[in-house]
Automatic annotation (TrEMBL):
InterPro entries: Ero1, ERO1-like_sf. The active site is at C344, C347. Residues 1-17 form the signal peptide. It comes from Anser cygnoides (Swan goose). This is Endoplasmic reticulum oxidoreductase 1 beta. GO terms for biological process: protein folding in endoplasmic reticulum. It is a peripheral membrane protein. Its cofactor is FAD.
Length: 418
């Protein structure tokens, strides 16, 4: 069977998985491998512009920023019990394990953070079970954690938190294609805000799957693992034929999520441009360099000319908009709690970080007026970000930037194996 090796990697328009094209493949007809171009739904941005912008502007700088001490250490509680169902087994594979850092190394950081004014609940950060983790030493990759335990997490997220009617079901395995086009008919009838919510979760799911495909355990010889891209796994999760057209939808939503978090970075720039905000690690020279690089990335995000317009969201009557925004927030908070049900510690770490990063991005987009009114030389009671939120925001966007880059790598690999 001829696989759609090239065309679905750079197209975002409605022709990505048109029934005619998929039908042609299923009938075994020869369809020339080609790149399609198009515009993402619910915004005015094409895939090619995002690819070029990410490759040449964002990816190299965000990679450098993630390597700096302020952004490489994330404090997380991996011992919280699942609040929704009984523990169905913890991953015993060695690659699921997370190695925390000695707490003593961060006493000065904690003392500095505690001296700041906070106006939000600090959840995991204040838990006695929370520990600092070096993200560079615990990279996100395929650990072998899979099957019903893993599927149950994503199935719960889609079933309970995406504004989906009870009469519409996904299969237990979220990687399997859903029941044809009928699964998406309900989505088309939703308001913009609810469609956006679903696309954000689907985009996050697609991004995480891409990371696993790109950093897959290929073999292990004499106790030395070899990690790298797994084309077969990538095809299984994203090929239009094997997913019955759903793979391209997942990739579209990845790009959409990238745009949302990119917009948040451009909007939060004034918060960090103030002299009162620093990226404290105790090393004044490195802290200054980290902030300079962060501000440079913000300038790049502002230069992008096809941003998602968040003003179109929650623009109805004030009472209805407020109610919908609260519903939005509660759904997302519930998803963050579901991440405590992930049985693999490393998967849980990255799931919690990327969920918090997206939550921080939404917090920014919902706080535009507060950010615009920030005082120059003092904290603001209207808007503030904790160290955890900042670290999560940057690393979550870094993961999306990596996903976009990995798509280009898989495109090359697929062309070679065609």
């Amino acid at each position: 069977m001829l696989l759609a090796h090239c065309y679905f990697l750079s197209c975002a328009g409605s022709t990505w998985a048109s029934s005619a094209l998929v039908h042609a493949f299923l009938q075994g007809q020869s369809v020339q491998c080609q790149q399609l171009t198009g515009v993402l739904d619910d915004c005015l941005c094409d895939i090619e512009s995002i690819d070029d912008f990410n490759t040449f502007k964002i990816f190299p700088k965000i990679q450098k920023l993630q390597e700096r001490d302020y952004f490489r250490y994330y404090k997380v509680n991996l011992k919280r019990p699942c609040p929704f169902w009984a523990d169905d087994g913890h991953c015993s594979i060695k690659d699921c394990h997370v190695e925390p850092c000695p707490e003593e190394a961060f006493i000065d950081w904690a003392r500095y953070d505690d001296s700041q004014d906070h106006f939000c609940e600090l959840d995991d950060e204040r838990s006695p079970d929370a520990q600092y983790v070096d993200l560079l030493l615990n990279p996100e990759r395929y650990t072998g954690y899979k099957g019903p335990s893993a599927w149950r997490v994503w199935n719960s997220i889609y079933e309970e938190n995406c504004f989906k009617p009870r009469s519409v079901y996904r299969p237990l395995n979220p990687l399997a294609p859903s029941r044809g086009e009928s699964f998406y008919t309900w989505l088309e009838g939703l308001c913009l805000e609810k469609r956006v919510f679903y696309k954000l979760i689907s985009g996050l799911h697609a991004s995480i799957n891409l990371h696993l495909c790109a950093n897959y355990l290929l073999e292990e010889t004499w106790g030395k693992p070899s990690w790298g891209p797994n084309v077969k796994e990538f095809t299984r999760r994203f090929d239009p034929i094997e997913t019955k057209g759903e793979g391209p939808r997942r990739l579209k939503n990845l790009y959409f999520l990238y745009l949302i978090e990119l917009r948040a970075l451009s909007k939060v720039a004034p918060y960090f441009e103030r002299s009162v905000v620093d990226l404290y690690t105790g090393n004044g020279h490195e802290d200054a360099e980290s902030k300079a690089l962060l501000l440079e990335i913000f300038r790049d995000t502002k230069s992008f000319h096809m941003h998602f317009d968040e003003k179109s969201m929650f623009a109805g009557d004030k009472k209805g908009a407020k109610s919908l925004k609260e519903e939005f927030r509660l759904h997302f908070k519930n998803i963050s709690r579901i991440m405590d049900c992930v049985g693999c510690d490393k998967c849980r770490l990255w799931g919690k970080l990327q969920t918090q990063g997206l939550g921080t991005a939404l917090k920014i987009l919902f706080s535009e007026k507060e950010i615009q009114n920030l005082p120059e030389n003092s904290p603001s009671k209207g808007f503030q970000l904790t160290r955890q939120e900042i670290v999560a925001l940057v690393n979550a966007f870094g993961r999306l930037s990596t996903s976009i880059k990995e798509l280009q790598n898989f495109k090359v690999l697929l062309q070679r194996t065609r």
